[in-house]
């Protein structure tokens, strides 16, 4: 089968004779239709993701058709599906609490286990979500990143009626403000250096648009840092009012100096957020089925899988008009 493996940082090895994996008892074999490139894939591509190392076949936001079930059961075969890519142990204290996203031995398809930059991918049967009719392949590809935003917003105490702030309007930031709007935030301030992204932020529900240098008008009750650098982290700490909460979604490539004195003095709560649980996935599918307008505009480019290098170059060279890039597998 066709497969693109990141063998070294910035080096994909493309083969068309990789062996098709064989599903074991609790697994299904999925024929991949398309797969999104995530911010974390870009960190991994540069060899800078703290928890992903080469060699790896990336790809954790994908849709496809179940071709085979390991136990021979037929109910999933032929279904259009997406997959919650977490591989969890099920018995550590976090798993027992239902917080599978922070399993002590968490592995993720496309991060530590082979992913969907390939014609076929394996997934545990119980991680498979059948796509409802209302979700075409593009909306199905957006379930995973939307679930990240759903999880982060649900971690915060105060959303409905609150003044909220989203720093960074890449895919995750835009999805976050879309969830905030759906959950009844009173105001949503979106911050990004790119005007084109702010325009999309407005369509998705932002009520105030600002560049990074503009002063943020308060009071802000709940903030979401969606970049992963010191500047935006400190901006969120400065802007959030006393007693407020900050969701930390950005992936930090390195240790950064953070204004901890203000975190203490303003009694702020930092909410680290990682991935999602089953119910976040169900909620993302529900939100997409109910009101998908504009979200599809997040997909700005598509490339066939063998052109994976071009896709990553595009993400690197023209970030201002590139949001979600999708690889199609045929
Ligand atoms: Zn992702
Ligand atoms: Zn566990």
How would you portray this structure in words?
The structure is a single chain. By secondary structure, the protein is α/β, with parallel strands linked by helices. It has two domains: 3-134 and 292-328, Alpha-Beta Complex (Quinone Oxidoreductase, Chain A, domain 1); 146-272, Rossmann fold, CATH 3.40.50.720. Helix content is 27%, strand content 27%. It is built from ten helices and 17 strands. α5 (171-182) packs parallel to α6. The mean pLDDT is 95. One zinc ion binds next to α4.
Architecture of the largest domain, CATH level 2? Alpha-Beta Complex
Secondary-structure content class: alpha/beta
Fraction of residues in β-strands: 25-35%
Query: Which residue ranges are poorly predicted, with pLDDT under 50 across at least 5 consecutive positions?
Result: none
CATH class of the largest domain: Alpha Beta
What percent of residues adopt helix (DSSP H or I)? Answer: 25-40%
Shape: globular
Let me know the average pLDDT.
Answer: 95
Question: What is the tally of helical segments?
Answer: 10
How far do the termini sit from each other?
10 Å
Main sheet makeup: 7 strands, mixed
CATH topology of the largest domain: Quinone Oxidoreductase, Chain A, domain 1
Bound molecules: zinc ion
Number of DSSP-assigned strands? 17
